[in-house]
Amino acid sequence: RFSGATIFVTGGAGFIGSAVIRHLLRDTGARVVNIDKLTYAANLDSLPGATENSRYAFERQCICEAEPMRVLFEKYRPDAVMHLAAESHVDRSIDGPAEFIKTNILGTFTLLQEALRHWRSLAPERSARFRFLHVSTDEVFGSLGVDGYFSEQTAYAPNSPYSASKASSDHLVRAWHETYGLPTLVTNCSNNYGPYHFPEKLIPHMIIKGLAGETLPVYGDGQNVRDWLFVEDHAEALSLALEQGRIGETYNVGGRNERSNLHVVESICDLLDQMIPRSDGPRRRLITFVKDRPGHDQRYAIDATKIESQLGWKARETFESGLTKTVGWYLEHRAWWNAILERGYKQERIGLG
Ligand code: NAD
């Protein structure tokens, strides 16, 4: 797959972007150019062995800067762009929305403009193959009640500065296809989890706190529901969408794994108890309920029928198998997350995903 093709991955030092790059280098013949500004969320340690791979290049670059982005397009002449660079943490967007507007909206606009210029410069055979894949979130659809699912037809109703900025970027991508013909694809996925997840996010946060026997803070009554997607299943879905997706289409990607936040935290406690029991008793007693965050969406759930039926993708991991792998990974990779904790990062609120 992708043999000889050059793929730009923006945000490739982030959680999902690094999973995409590990997948592309391991399972395909693509040449990968990682374009990342290296914000607090980035970590090049999430790409072990990449720098020794002749099919990998790294460019430290902000996607909002048009001129240097143009130079990169001219230097590498990519066959595809997988756009994952973003400010991604909802809690941070509440306390400081400006950076979200800049990267997620203006950054996507800049990237679209430079991709368009590049695409127009390609010879017909190559321009026919070019794709721009924009990676987005199910949070653009707002919140669900107790039943129903987000489909590709669901109307946008974003509630947080983060989801509003992502919704804006999705609309820009759509418009660049409709107006200029840029061959785009959009994916909207549910909450990812898995190895190399930044410690401020719900699952790694609870694993690390639970290991240390510290308090496990859960927002509200813990009944908010998320549809969990194992990050490696997501990476596979993205490369399939890039390879086989229909131009101009949107695909929802979800793991059919709806779980309440409380269930997630209790499951982590139970897995940790099995793997490393504490002498002072089961970890569920560490759970405490804290004041809910403003605009906290009640439930997200994805209907993934389209990508499953049209592209033949299906999540391999159940929540139970993926969580077991994830807890095991954090136990085996303490150096990876300890380095982040030691470096320190400004935690705006508690890390509840
Ligand atoms: P992340 O925060 O882990 O990584 C984002 C990466 O983008 C970082 O490496 C960062 O340095 C880089 N970046 C940020 N601003 C940049 C800029 N201006 N120029 C260049 N690079 C920049 O995010 P993630 O969880 O890997 O998410 C990747 C994408 O997937 C995002 O677009 C996000 O909205 C989307 N998404 C994530 C989830 C999830 O559960 N993590 C769910 C749905 C959608």
UniProtKB/TrEMBL annotation:
Q: Which reaction does it catalyse?
A: dTDP-alpha-D-glucose = dTDP-4-dehydro-6-deoxy-alpha-D-glucose + H2O
Signal peptide location in the record? none
Q: Which Pfam families match?
A: GDP_Man_Dehyd
Q: What EC number is given for this enzyme? A: 4.2.1.46
Please give the coiled-coil regions recorded for this protein: none
Which cofactors are named for this entry? NAD(+)
The NAD(P)-binding domain is annotated at 8-325
The molecular function GO annotations come to: dTDP-glucose 4,6-dehydratase activity
**Which UniProt key words apply to this protein?**
Lyase, NAD
Give the family, as the similarity comment puts it. Belongs to the NAD(P)-dependent epimerase/dehydratase family. dTDP-glucose dehydratase subfamily.
For this entry, the protein name equals dTDP-glucose 4,6-dehydratase
Q: Which organism is it from?
A: Bradyrhizobium campsiandrae
Q: Which gene encodes it?
A: rfbB
